[in-house]
Amino acid sequence: SDLNNFIKNGSNGIQNIMLTCGEHEYTRYGFRKLLEMKCADILQPDITWLGGMTEAKRITLMASAYDIPVIPHGSGPYSYHLQIAFPNCPMAEFLMLAPKADVIQPLFGDLFIDE
């Protein structure tokens, strides 16, 4: 991604909006760069893409050191545990997977029993 544009538009750029990013970042090293360069007001790692809860915990703790909130992208059972455990995870993103938005469907369909 073009981090220089994030810098221009991030915390110090556009007024009255919060810039989020991170759903397509896959390691703590990329998130560290986003934090060091002050590219975002909120980080949104996707736990299923970045390697699981351990890596998500590392990213959340790193963001806490910069006073940056974390709202995991595509929240589900995997990120709810993270959000309950860390105060800098203030809310959950909820994805409605049902085509008619009339029922809650599991993230992976019928792949896992009782998901």
Gist?
The protein is mostly helical and 115 residues long.
What does this structure look like?
The longest helix has 13 residues. The chain contains 5 helices and 2 strands; from the N terminus they run H-E-H-E-H-H-H. With 115 residues, it is mainly alpha-helical.
What is the topology?
Elements: H1 3-9, E1 20-21, H2 28-36, E2 42-43, H3 47-50, H4 53-65, H5 77-85
Parallel strand pairs: 1-2
Q: The biggest beta sheet, please?
A: 2 strands, parallel
Tell me the series of helices and strands, N- to C-terminal.
HEHEHHH
Give the low-confidence spans.
Answer: none
Helix and strand content put the structural class at mainly alpha
Quickly count the helices: 5
Helix content class:
25-40%
Number of strands: 2
Task: Give the termini distance in whole angstroms.
Answer: 34 Å
Overall residue-averaged pLDDT value:
83
What's the alpha carbon Rg, rounded to whole Å?
A: 15 Å
Determine the strand fraction and express it as a percent band. Answer: under 5%
Write down the overall geometry. globular
Strand order of the largest sheet: 1-2
